Amino acid sequence: MSTDTAPPARPRLGVFKFASCDGCQLTLLDCEDELLGIATELEIAYFLEGSSAPAPGPYDLSLVEGSVSTPEHVDRIRRIRADSRHLVTIGACATAGGVQALRNHADVAEYLAAVYARPDYIETLATSTPISAHVPVDFELRGCPIDRGQLVEVITAFLAGRKPGIPDHAVCFACKRRGNVCVTVAHGTPCLGPVTHAGCGALCPTYGRGCYGCFGPAGTTNLPALVPLMHRDGMSDEDIGRFLRTFNVTAFTAVEEQEPGTIQKEGPR
Fold first, then answer.
1. From CA 49, how far away is CA 22, in angstroms rounded?
2. What are the residue boundaries of the structural domains of the chain, listed by start?
3. Which of 102, 153, 250, 257 is the most exposed place for a label (fewest CB within 10 A)?
4. Which residues pair with 19 in a beta bridge?
């Protein structure tokens, strides 16, 4: 009688795209050597960016890029959630609506008329929303795009059955670790570093630019303390609102709502 036993089945990974630029999926491909190790531990069952042979679910871990922006997206994300043991959203579009969520503060009909010759052919929702607005999400990985090291940490953490070790402190911590001179203090450059989630390695401040908030709000924010500095450095209330609502529109809007009137309540400058 044969004593051979079949090897244990590898966990199945699905990678899915909604309204987005594909940059966060490309980050997975850019993992290069790490991806080879991941591929030995996981069956990459569905990943149209990297394979022309997608397999149906169920999936042990699904990575979802992009925001919900069309009626079809609503039904599709529900199907993916039903097929997924764990669902992780990756990038600013999936976690906070992305750049396309700027339309949440405007008239979508006007945009359609200005951009498309036949807007009646376009199916879109009035808003662009994060995945978590429609289905339960097990973890959100921030960034525009995400950081490859953090992505590998998330995948390996779910393989090991533990919580991903992703810090939620602000970009200012990364600046201090790199020995950067504060661009706001030294040069009067508006910077969202004090309220932005770390993950980029303080890339922009390292090269003398203010942080643009690509990774969304940090775990703890203090907008009332930051707004007067931005006023001092020449930004109006409207400028500050636009500065916050770039890559992570819905996330920073939620922070503003926690501090009603933060941008408007400052005295004369």
1. 8
2. 12-160, 171-258
3. 257
4. 67
Question: Which residues, at least 6 apart from 159, have a Cβ–Cβ distance to it below 8 Å?
Answer: 11, 41, 42, 61
**Cβ(94)–Cβ(101) below 8 Å:** no
Structure confidence by residue, pLDDT tens digits, 83-105: 999 999 999 999 999 999 989 98
CA distances from 156 to 29, 34, 93, 163 (A): 16, 10, 23, 10
Q: What's the full length of the chain, in residues?
A: 269
Q: What is the rounded CA–CA span in Å between residue 221 and residue 148?
A: 25
Separation of alpha carbons 10 and 183, rounded Å: 48
CATH architecture of 12-160: 3-Layer(aba) Sandwich (3.40)
Beta strand spans in 79-232 (E): 84-90, 139-141
Gap between the terminal Cα atoms of the chain = 87
Q: How far from 120 is each of 69, 109, 123, 218, CA to CA, in Å?
A: 16, 10, 8, 40
Calpha distance 40→174 (Å, rounded): 33
Block residue for tokens 């807007």 = 119
The two structure tokens encoding residue 249: 């529109």
Q: For residue 139, what are the β-bridge partners?
A: 88
